[in-house]
DNA sequence: CTTTCGCAAGAAAACGTTTACAGTGCACTC
DNA sequence: GAGTGCACTGTAAACGTTTTCTTGCGAAAG
């Protein structure tokens, strides 16, 4: 009973074998529930396990079984609700499937990604990688060759890995169209960081749809970087500007919310003076006021299904072919995008039931 | 160059040794940057490494070095900003120190915790455990004996592990005092889940401070469980109730925000009709409107310093003694708790600069 | 009474590393 | 010309498992 912590090294299979007066093979068999062991032997082993407080060393086990039950997750960053939602989705499935997640976050790209990738060899059965900077070559070169990989947000063509992406281009067009349908003419785009795949798709979607729906209206693109601060700065600029646009379509929700805060502080009313829309539908978006119109991405679902596919690959490496799933987000209309042109009622939506 | 993915198994140190015509020992020496190897040999090895795309198998390495460079993190759940902030803090330090995080989340407590703990043996160098249900015995019994452990939020006395906790009791007293100082008399408490250590401390703090600051005023405790939905339900109840309290002190921010939403829907004005306060200061709290008065906990910092202490223990196992750090949260006054009794100005705070 | 079978359990190889130890060759020193 | 020391490299044990063989042995079959 008095097994005070930190007193001695962990017991190994050998210790158990010695104490139970059997071979290590038998201990192993008992631990793995193999039927081919006599009742009496099993009991002796179990008793020894109990008394020594033996716990198998999974690291050693996975060396020989070639399975770790761990999936590596490589993310560019961990700030904000987008990533926490993603992790939530990943973790949900991991837990259901009795697997664990090895988290690795990276900023510096390039060399740092390579190092992180290397540090994962032999520790994971598969990899979920989100590499928003489109450095396919780098990734391609550093990927351990035999490891199943699922890419999030940035397909690498011909790489042989599966990818789960958000159709940012179509999403951006849909949102731009929505804003236009609300009667807004001069729609500005608060862009994401240059080089980011999603950000670029969203910018392109905005451009194309503006040309189609609002031909002649000049494009208005403000630089940003997916942070609330950038949204805030842009919002201040716009609030003070002499020719304020009718609507601001931010490349993600966090930017939009920063913008919202700046507008509130400056006394600019949303949506009366200017409409605002975001992208991602992070949980926060339904809680700010005015509630944010945005593109619903089902972030947690994205993570979950990516991991699900990865597990399928793990169970049947040869039976599964790489897939490229592209999730189409949907417009979620809330208060911030203004009343419909032919109606006056504010949308009254139930709260987001998490 | 045409190293298409998935073509063959990974190269091992033996393959490199064979190709470079040296022993595996020399390869190992080169990989670990030991100086005692001739220039020419080193080059041969390096060339082989390059051509075989060799990456050392960290799993195998850690089997013999007894170091994994991974820290396990056991959390009760992953919902909400509290945990994402915590993970952010943990990950920040992990990244700085070139370590990785192995995430494991648990709900069912008891047997599930034990299983999770076992699944970690040999995969991690240390453990950060958050077990809000006060089941110290269970934890105590299942903890691998030699593993450094840091407990988050729920000290186990005499367990020999370090713990980092929030002083929820003092925090709750401070918040209750604050609400009282704002002139509120009938202060209700929206409690957290029973059995949760922090929730119970907060309830106790509320009770004690009410008795001191508002003797004679009956306590009013509503059951809850740290979810937004529970806050919402409680808010609806209160809004419809005939004797609404002057103020609601929720056991955490998420509850408070749920409550806020219910009040807004019911047309109950905050803080004019009823004040609301939360606990934790999740990032969201400064963004809702009215901005939420709450106890600032510095969640990410908590995670970061817990991990920092753990690393210190890892580097010098004998030199560090278990510590029990108790972080005292501070009142953050925002709009939701009402104007000071002797002033009318709404507090105008800068936005939370993440 | 042999042969055959099947069950239980042990021996040993394997997984991919690190590292203590033992060579090997070579330049010095006496 | 043998001993000494040094710089380098190879051998083999170890880490904690799983798993394939092998072996021992009692029972069923002939």
Keywords:
homodimer, 354 residues, alpha/beta, 6-stranded parallel β-sheet, 12 strands, 41% helix, 14% strand, DNA-binding
Q: Would you count the extended β strands of chain A for me?
A: 12
Largest interface: A-B, 69 and 69 residues
- Outline type of chain A: elongated
> Major sheet of chain A: order of its strands?
2-1-3-4-5-11
Task: Report mean pLDDT of chain A, rounded to a whole number.
Answer: 88
Largest sheet of chain A: 6 strands, parallel
Specify the number of helices of chain A. 12
| Strand residue content of chain A | 5-15%
- One letter per element, helices H and strands E, the order of chain A comes to HHHHEHEHEHEEHEHEHEHEEHEE
What is the CA-atom radius of gyration of chain A, in angstroms? 26 Å
Roughly how much helix do the residues of chain A carry, as a percent range? 40-55%
Say what oligomer this is: homodimer
Overall structural class of chain A, as computed from helix and strand content, comes to alpha/beta
Which stretches of chain A of 5+ consecutive residues score pLDDT under 50? 1-7, 343-354
State the end-to-end CA separation of chain A: 44 Å
What would you note in describing this structure?
- Two copies of one chain form a homodimer.
- Chain A has 354 residues and is α/β, with parallel strands linked by helices.
- Helix content of chain A is 41%, strand content 14%.
- Chain A is built from twelve helices and twelve strands.
- Chain A has helices at 13-20, 24-31, 39-52, 58-65, 80-96, 110-118, 136-142, 168-181, 197-213, 228-240, 253-266, 299-315; strands at residues 70-75, 100-105, 126-130, 149-152, 162-166, 187-190, 220-222, 247-250, 275-277, 294-296, 324-327, 330-332.
- In chain A, the strands form three sheets. In chain A, strands 2-1-3-4-5-11 form a six-stranded parallel sheet, with helices on both faces.
- In chain A, strand 6, helix 9 (197-213) and strand 7 (220-222) form a beta-alpha-beta unit.
- In chain A, helix 5 (80-96) runs parallel beside helix 12 (299-315), helix 8 runs parallel beside helix 9 (197-213) and helix 10 packs across helix 11.
- The longest helix of chain A has 17 residues, at 80-96.
- The first copy, chain A, is elongated and about 85 Å long.
- The relative contact order of chain A is 0.11.
- Mean pLDDT of chain A is 88; it is low at 1-7 and 343-354.
- Chains A and B meet through helix 4, helix 5, strand 2, helix 10 and helix 11 of A and helix 4, helix 5, strand 2, helix 10 and helix 11 of B.
- Strand 2 (100-105) of chain A pairs antiparallel with strand 2 of chain B, so a sheet runs across the interface.
- The structure holds a DNA duplex (30 and 30 nucleotides).
